[in-house]
Specification:
The protein is an alpha/beta fold. Helices cover about 40% and strands about 15% of the residues. It is built from 15 helices and 11 strands. The strands form 3 sheets. Strands 2-1-7-8-9 form a 5-stranded parallel sheet. The longest helix is centred in the N-terminal third of the chain and has 20 residues, at about 1-20.
């Protein structure tokens, strides 16, 4: 009882602090799918003063995977004698023609793994088959992919490769900061990514664009504290990168994880769903690891493919639209029958809105 009262008191204090600092309209964007889900689940938007507008950004790694990349993955998984390993969230992402889940029902050897270690184990246990691991995600998952490539090299595994679609968050934030279409006063920065990156990769935002930044945890009170700090920075004209998640994030980040990324990958231009091609926002294997690169190994052509007709995932990821403003939302696009990836992923903005907001309002 005491703890509940204390939490309620702290929430009310943070709410009053937001009201004090928000003397003028402010727009903040959370750039983490876990934050997005927590915000919808807790109903946090209902506690915000009228001057605070909170929008969701490209924080879901499944959602930002480009349509052409999804199609390339499906095309590769169709190959006979090939085992295609993927994280579960990618199974239901619609391509131009079906999905990986559809492909599996048609007999393709598509397997869900919980880690890239399991994918390498598949290669070791099936030496006569090619095993491809679909590497998606931000800086959070890239170190694991890098480590498994190093392990595959050490063990001289010849039937294992990675279809690498990893993305880097800071270049996408730069694009959003430079965009004249969306005015963002502050970023609630991604907690999990920041565990790897630390503070320095974000410092261009306050320095070059005068955008306030805060790294916060994932509990509702953590998020509220982050929003209060953003509002304070805007109110005081004091843009900086504030670390409010010190229990998990070090200012220097995870140096070992960053070393793995640098050792195995080079930065490369990459296409993001809704954001287009962003310079140096993706990762590709260094030439010395080319034999583990599925794009090279299978001569894949990653084409530019339009989004499904009517799908507004791109605008949702840019913070231009709320999920319920998409004409397909809840009508043609639902979690059971998704049109776009934002309704598929557990961290997707549309899926979170449907589960925690839309269904409650109906």
């Amino acid at each position: 009882m005491q703890e509940k009262g204390t939490l309620r008191d702290k929430a009310e204090l943070l709410q009053r602090a937001l009201g004090f600092f928000a003397k003028e309209p402010m727009t903040f964007m959370e750039v983490c799918g876990t934050h997005t889900v927590a915000i919808y689940r807790s109903g946090l938007r209902s506690l915000l003063p009228k001057n605070i507008s909170l929008v969701s950004g490209p924080g879901c790694p499944v959602c930002v995977t480009d349509q052409g990349e999804v199609d390339a993955a499906i095309k590769l998984a169709e190959k006979k004698g090939l085992v295609f390993a993927t994280y579960g969230d990618m199974m239901r992402v619609p391509g131009t023609k079906g999905s990986l889940r559809n492909l599996r029902t048609q007999g393709a050897d598509v397997r869900v793994v919980r880690s890239c270690d399991e994918a390498l184990d598949l290669a070791l246990k099936n030496p006569t088959k090619e095993v491809v691991f679909l590497g998606v995600g931000f800086e959070t998952t890239a170190p694991s992919t890098a480590a498994i490539i190093l392990e595959a090299e050490e063990k001289k595994v010849r039937n294992f490769s990675v279809l690498c679609f990893h993305k880097l968050v800071p270049p996408a934030l730069r694009l959003l900061a430079e965009s004249g279409e969306l005015k963002v006063d502050g970023f609630l920065l991604p907690g999990h990514v920041s565990v790897v990156l630390g503070i320095m990769p974000y410092e261009f935002l306050p320095r070059d664009f005068k955008i306030s930044c805060a790294i916060a945890g994932f509990e509702p009170l953590d998020i509220m504290e982050g929003l209060v700090e953003l509002a304070r920075q805007v109110h005081d004209k004091d843009p900086k990168v504030s670390l409010l998640y010190a229990r998990a994030v070090r200012p220097e980040g995870n140096t070992r994880a960053k070393k793995f990324i640098r050792q195995v990958f080079d930065e490369a231009d990459a296409r993001w769903r809704g954001l287009g091609k962003i310079k140096n926002s993706g990762l590709r294997l260094k030439p010395e690891f080319a034999r583990f690169d599925a794009i090279t190994r299978f001569d894949l052509d990653i084409k530019e493919v339009p989004l499904p007709s009517g799908c507004k995932c791109g605008e949702v990821l840019m913070g231009k639209l709320r999920p319920e403003e998409c004409p397909l939302f809840s009508i043609r696009c639902t979690p059971d029958d998704p049109v776009g990836p934002c309704m598929v992923s557990s961290e997707g903005n549309c899926a979170a809105c449907y589960k925690y907001s839309y269904k409650v309002m109906r």
